[in-house]
Amino acid sequence: MSSVRHTVAEIAKLGRVLGVDPADLDFLATQTPSAIKAFRDQISDEMSGRDVLRMQRVAAAVKLVPKPVAALVAEKALGPALAAAVAGAVEPARAVAIAESLSPKFLADATVLLDPKRAAEVIARVPDTMAAEVARELIERGDYLTMGRLAGAMPESVLWAALPQAADRDILQVGLHLEDSSQAERLLNMVTDRVPGMVTAMYAEQQWADAISLLDLIGPEQRARMADIVAEQDDEVLDGLLTAVTELDAWDALLPVAADMAITGLQRLAQRPVMHDPATLTRVSDISLAEGLWLDLLPLVRHLDTAQQRRIAERVLAEDDDALRELIVLASPEAPTMLPLALSVDGEPRTRVLIILEGMPELDALVDLLDSGHHDAWQTLVALTAELPERVRKLLVVRARTCGLDEVASALAADV
To answer: For residue 194, what is the enclosing H or E element?
Structure first.
């Protein structure tokens, strides 16, 4: 889902370079965002290389006239397109000096066509007041594409000047249109105090799809921080996110985020009505297995109630023996979660798990990770004493005694 939104953004950028309506480029929708970006870069390089001598001649002429005259020529004769092209060929300090005599509207028009790779030194020298004026003009136009394209080339001083001009919803849109997605964390680090406002805007304007797409652009630490902030919001905000994730089938984006959330956030997530819907839990399980997100699901499982765990266990236990054995091995660091999950079901599925456990060479390590903090798991195992394979029971007895659970050990040791 989020990949589609990034592709749409890249098509819009390509349309800007080519001067065509992005709708005319819909045939590229099957391509990856990176492929479209690479194609756009090739076109930009070709166009810039073709005109380089012409731009150098214009730039040489600009040097010969006073700055106010050069500004007047740029605004009245060259126009924003040519002025943007020349900017990278003029000495940076002089280019900025000329720009100071231009109107914010003209600067914004030229900025739309500015190549950040060729004008990086000019952008780095832009005064704070000019950055604020141009940012205000672009935001009023809703031109997030231009702002996102240039944000990565801006030093922090310029960004600090521009950010106050953006509302919380605007920052989200700029993040989605960043030219270099690796800059998303940099941007979010600068607006950490505004994340709650961004979350409120996402809810108020139903921009959850955009917010979920943004998660793809930031690292685990930032994702978890954003998720924890969302989890602190009112119930209707959190429910709005979960409903959107369900409707967009975007659990593949949310599960890795949930895995790094604080315990309080995971507990709130587990308690929401959406997470009690059997169809949702089955879908979450399907995606975790199909997308290699099994380990991302387990931290959330620990905070689900018995009925929720049983629904997930029923789906997981539908896997064949080889697949189930692999899942158990992968989950060994989460043994206190995995065992209650596997034992939350009754009858043949539970017996099947126990048989698989008995034949696993990794069983010693798996059982050893049970700790005294999970008494419910121990009580479940005690209730199943008669069903446990002998080797499993012996290992559990040793572990229970190590944990100081003498009564549990005695119960498990009956008839051993």
So the answer is: none
Could you report the per-residue pLDDT of 180-203, keeping only the tens digit for each? 777 888 888 888 888 888 888 888
Work out the angle at residue 248's Cα, subtended by the Cα atoms of residues 7 and 39, and round it to the nearest 5 degrees: 5
Q: Would you give the DSSP letter of residue 100?
A: T
The DSSP 8-state label assigned to residue 23 in this structure reads: G
Contact 183, 223 (CB under 8 A): no
Q: What's the whole-number mean pLDDT along residues 386-409?
A: 80
DSSP annotation of 195 reads: H
Contact 404, 371 (CB under 8 A): no
Contact between 137 and 110 (Cβ < 8 Å): no
Interacting residues of 285 by C-beta distance below 8 A, sequence separation 6+: 297, 311, 312, 315, 316
pLDDT tens for each residue of 93-105:
777 777 777 788 8
The phi, psi pair for 359, rounded to 5°, reads: -90, 10
* Single-letter residue type at 135: A
DSSP string, 160-172: HHHGGGS-HHHHH
Q: Which of 331, 346, 321, 343 is nearest to 392 (CA)?
A: 343
| Rounded Cα gap, residues 94 and 92, in angstroms | 5
CB 67 within 8 A of CB 94: yes
Q: What is the pTM of this model?
A: 0.69
- Token pair 């950028």 is found at 13
Q: Where are the alpha helices (DSSP H) in 195-347?
A: 195-204, 208-215, 220-231, 235-248, 251-259, 263-271, 278-290, 294-301, 306-316, 321-330, 335-342
Residues constituting the chain:
416
DSSP H helical segments within 63-119, as ranges? 67-73, 79-87, 92-99, 104-112
